[in-house]
Amino acid sequence: MEKENIAVGLDIGTTKIVAMIGRKNEYGKLEILGVGKSKSLGVARGVVNNITQTIQSIQQAVLEAESKSGYKIKDVVVGIAGQHIRSIQHSDYIIRNSAEEVIGGNDIQILIDQVNKLAMLPGEEIIHVLPQEFKIDGQSDIKEPIGMYGGRLESSFHVVVGQAASIRNLGRCIQSTGIELSGLTLEPLASADAVLSQEEKEAGVALIDIGGGTTDLAIFKDGIIRHTAVIPFGGNVITDDIKEGCSIIEKQAELLKVKFGSAWPGENKENEIVSIPGLRGREPKEISLKNLSKIINARVVEIIEQVFNEIKEYGHEDPRKKLIAGIVLTGGGAQLKHVKQLVEYITGMDTRIGYPNEHLAGNSDEEISSPLYATAVGLVMNSIENKTQSAVKLDVFEAQKTTAKPPVFQNPEMEEPRNEMEEEMEEVANKESSTETKIRSSFFGGYLDKIKDFLDNAE
Length: 459
Prior knowledge:
The protein is an alpha+beta fold. Helix content is 38%, strand content 27%.
């Protein structure tokens, strides 16, 4: 019987941490087996700033996902965001030994490895090296060079860069919970996998993921990622503004935002008022919904304008770079009332709210298909692509623990002689698996191995 490909994604956000366990069903859709959610403590604007608290929050989310699904998590694909993320465009080329030989995956791998050696600013490391169009012997706009012939292979790359220390802290938190890190993915790329269709990516689309601490942007055109950015503002800043502007506590500000908040101030009439209970024996506070909308609107406009500046930087006004599919909004902030209309008003681009339900199985829980879980769903999809066995059934896991035998030390002279055929086959298998691992790890910019080495050597 073929092993189940159980995949696990871990979304470490500023407001919540989500552990999601899933698998593909017979129709190729994503079946979610269990979701664990915990309040994110120790993360600010997408960056870990308190390791102990982050570990506790991760453990809580992981335990909840395990108990709901009946699976024990072994490894996870983790989303990375934060204000330290930046992206650059870079072009590079290689001269092949023989122009008469067909171009293979190995040539692209050599090119990617070459880009991975780029010198970065001190303390920065390359996370992703994403090839865009290729050029072979001067012939440009080639999307798939494998199978073609040529001597000079050139490509433009989208290179995502982040702070090494922040990524290592993330790795340390996960390792401390006893789970392996099987992959790193930039969060806007994971969200894009979950909510965008291939047609939208071809036509040109900007994905805006409004999270708690950061707002992530990913721009696609002709099916290729063109631009990514992380803006260090999100829903939490809106809550802070309400807290300050209305002189209320954070919990009440969050509730006000979610229940009565609107990004469009013209919506509320002057006489619409909500009463907030006062603190310990104090008089209740009366807050005008029009004022609440004005506070929210001012901050949302600022966030959208910053994102729009990034879209302009990509050059969407150039007819060849036009984003025909407009904007897709996702993340918790996309649930704010009238935010879609405000984005359309500011940018003049068609906008829709992105739900991750396109890839989910029909019987999925309604809550999971909310924009809140877009990143987590995308990370699970990413984990499925890695073909990792990321979780095992709890009863199997318990059985493995009880039947684990102590190591038997044999006398080397007693070992049965192995024939040459067996040894040769083992060697070939080892070679094949190492090639496969090498190509997969390059997708994470070879960076995962560096983190693992660092964590293994850390005191």
